[in-house]
Amino acid sequence: MQVFKAMMKIMRKRLPSAMIYIIVFIVISILVTNASTKDNKFEVTKLDICVFDEDDTPESRALTEFIGKTNDIDEIENDRDAIIDALYYKRVNYALIINKGYAEKLAAGDTADLFGSYHIDENYSVVYIGQFLDEYTTSVKAYLAMGKTVDEAISCTEEALSQHTDVDMLRVDKGGNSHYSVDFAGYFQYMPYILIAAVFTVICQVLVTMNNKDIRYRTNCSCMNSSKYTFQLIFGSGLFVISVWLLLIIIGAVLNKEMYTGRAWYAVFNSFIFSLVVTAMAVFVASFEPKENVLNIITQVLSIGMSFLCGIFIPMEVLSDKVLSVARFLPAYWYVKANNMIADIEPFSRSDVLLCCLVEAGFALMFIILTLLVRKVKYSGAAIATSAKKAAVSH
Amino acid sequence: MFMHILKYELKGGLRSKDLIIWLILFPIILGTVFKVGFGSIYEKTEKFNSIPVAVVEESENKAFRQVIENIESADEPFITASFTDKAKAEKLLDDGEVEGIIFSGEKLRLTVKEKGLRETMLKSFVEQYSVREKIAMDAFETAPEKAQQVIETLTAETVSSCREIPVTQGNPDVYAQYFYNLIAMVAIFGSITGMTVTSRRQADLSALGARSCCSPVPKSISVLASLASSFILQTICMTVCVTFLAFVLKVDFGDRLWLVYPTAIFGGILGVSFGFLVGSFARVSEKVKTAILMTTSMLLCFFSGLMMGNMKAIVAEKAPWFNNINPVAVISDCFYCLNIYEDYDRYFTKLITMAVTIVIFITLGIIASRRKKYASI
Q: With a CB-CB cutoff of 8 Å, which residues 156-175 of chain B face chain A?
């Protein structure tokens, strides 16, 4: 176990910089979990609307109140930049201005130009609220035409518009007592990113040190065979990854304020398998001996790239089928798919979740085999002899 | 002497190809991933398109069919309907071909699969039908003599009651901000080159540092020369990055692309100075310095919304001052301003913030690195 011991020694030396990475990523994952409790659905049925009431009459206030019944009314500073920011970042979906003279025009039955709206693009909310406003004013106008007073017309309109049609869902939510809330699924969803980013930077650095030319040559002339060497590396890295994983799981339980129960254990199992994949991937990347600065950038490309393609940073539902069919060739896709099933975002089935885990394990195996191959080719006696010869010639 | 050092620093920087290549490859790979990943999300989910819906006629309802046909004949129809039978409609809904099924009979019924805005719109469309029915009934009950007039009011083509006031000419795609953040990230990764400037000047960290410490050149000149070379290298990276995003991936930066270049380059200089500052202050090994730089960069990127699109809005709500001092957020905000705002007020504020930060970083860095003596190594 000399290799393993040497690895542990290097790791101990690298602990300070490793801890910086791990702490920062844990902070990120805590922030993500807290932030994602606010909107875990991509589209919400209740729109956020801000109303600038320039008319300020009982009629306009009645309209604002009525809009507020089915939507959320947000207060926003009446400043062009603030409104643009809010609309762009979707903090409000619609910025409505009730023009001056609304009440008078409405009473006269004139429905043109009653409102204004700050407009960034033609999105669904704009169309929806536009239709709603038209419907509201037309109805008021119709009641006025029946000879009702404005007040009566408004209350009749509100009554008419408040009728509800029951909507059936094609598939009823199975929900049940799954012990795995959507917030919590968010924590697990971001875990692959944390694992890849934190683990890669630490493990690869250690492995690159182990690959240092002088140390390599010394190991190569010993009697240890290369696959044994590689397996000890994998074992050492695995031990480190699993301790990071354990830490994340414990923090998860603390954040969730209860011990894992029921279906949450599937998520724990799923993340465990994924951490094995990350180990194998890290060992694989390290066998190409990247330089340290480059390694950091490669890590970013891998972690962020995979997170975007596989639905970690943006929900899988909104990614196109083409992207998803490419993502199938990446391990994080299967992790997220399993996590979605456990969280009931997709229909849950035990065998499918286990199948996803199996695919992930397959990826881990593939990376281990590839690593063995790369190392065999790179560090074989013949390869070293050629590189030594090249060096001699160039001198 | 300045030019001499600059020349050799440049040569050295270009020869250690790895870093430059990766700094250039990095936005190319991630940019492509972004483009592939959500190139069409905006068109698909945010921008209004006709909502596909299946209509199942349980019994004859000519009036409703008439309504649907009227709607479909419009230029930009609100819904596109396909008339079919129940089994087929359910299959369409399950496959996601349509957003909902309207069963038309005595009463309209709606079946959907998801809960979202489009489903809500369908619901309100179905309700609209019953609202009009109720109004007509009310009319017949209260004032039958005026009923005809009421129905005319309801069916008359009306002008929209709401006038839209466009607030921007820019690209409203909220996903474009991921590209802004990507450029900002490349800029802040310039901190790695900035840091090497310092470690090449610190005798305890590199042989080159030991050599340059015993040379008679004033430290300020040698530091400024190698900073200048890092700026030049970073400028190359930023230019390639923006060119690739704008012309190969065709990311829409609004109509002021010529200003995007200097902004990105300025951001790159900010990144390099950031690395220089951290490198000069922290008297630790290069590995720990890299760790500090990488993690702070990642955190700053995170708060600017690289990993979660709505993060910047959340920060703006909870701690607005942080967006003004977070260099990544400032850089990406510049691109946002160029795209969305018509005036330059806020853009210039951000640029001045960047300039001030650069000056502070470099001054502090030089103060920290001057007069450092290495008695023995």
A: 158-168, 172, 174
The confidence score (pLDDT) of residue B121 equals 83
- In chain B, what are the domains? 2-42+173-369 (no CATH), 51-160 (3.40.190)
A232-251 pLDDT, tens digit per residue, is: 888 888 888 888 899 888 88
Cα distance from A120 to chain B (closest Cα, Å)? 6
Query: Does residue B147 surpass a pLDDT of 90?
Result: no
Closest chain A residue to B134, measured at CA: A160
CA distance B316 to chain A (A): 10
Report the pLDDT averaged over residues A269-275: 92
Q: Is B231 on the interface with A (CB under 8 A)?
A: no
Beta-carbon neighbour count of residue B331 at 10 Å? Answer: 29
- pLDDT higher than 80, residue B40: no
CB A305 to CB B290 under 8 A? no
Strands A115-119 and B162-166: parallel
Instruction: State whether A119 and B307 contact (CB < 8 Å).
Output: no
Residue B142 to residue A148, Cβ atoms within 8 A? yes
Mean pLDDT of chain A: 81
ipTM of the complex model = 0.79
For residues B221 and A241, give the distance between their C-alpha atoms in angstroms, rounded to a whole number. Answer: 46
Domains defined for chain A, CATH in brackets: 2-33+174-394 (no CATH), 48-169 (3.40.1710)
